[in-house]
TrEMBL record:
Pfam families: PadR. InterPro entries: Tscrpt_reg_PadR_N (IPR005149), WH-like_DNA-bd_sf (IPR036388), WH_DNA-bd_sf (IPR036390). Transmembrane segments: none annotated. This is PadR family transcriptional regulator. Residues 7-80 form the Transcription regulator PadR N-terminal domain.
Amino acid sequence: MSTGHVLLGLLVERPKHGYELKKEHDHRLAGAKPLAYGQVYATLQRLERDGLAEVAETQQEGGPERTVYAITDSGRAELERWLNTVEPSAPYVASPLFARVAVAGKAADGYLLRQREAHLARMRELTAEKASGAPARVLAADYALQHLDADLRWIETALARMREVSNA
């Protein structure tokens, strides 16, 4: 995910200052790693430098001065390009779960059983979170649940293959 593109997407609705963008990012991308304020402001400066965003105004309403940014026409075009780019599937398996199993040898089955229990516990937590009804939270929970479900299916396959090898 490109932080710059996400911020441009949030600026499409209306001009916003960095604090507001950070809060909206963390709310709308519930379940994603929260942005650090420093990352937001550094990204805004880069977007401005590249002509994708511009300073719309500076506000000072009883607090610190806040710079409000707006998306430019070039920023809209770049956002449109990014939104229409199909994300390629990952060319490599880059999973800590897979890496541990690959090097664990015969000890992998114990690890897989513990990991299965941890995944099931997390799935119960996410299912409970979905009850909140907030659309962003529900989407994030659904996404995470689908990934955990895929991991669980792989864990079951790996356990079965390991049993086949040990019985051969």
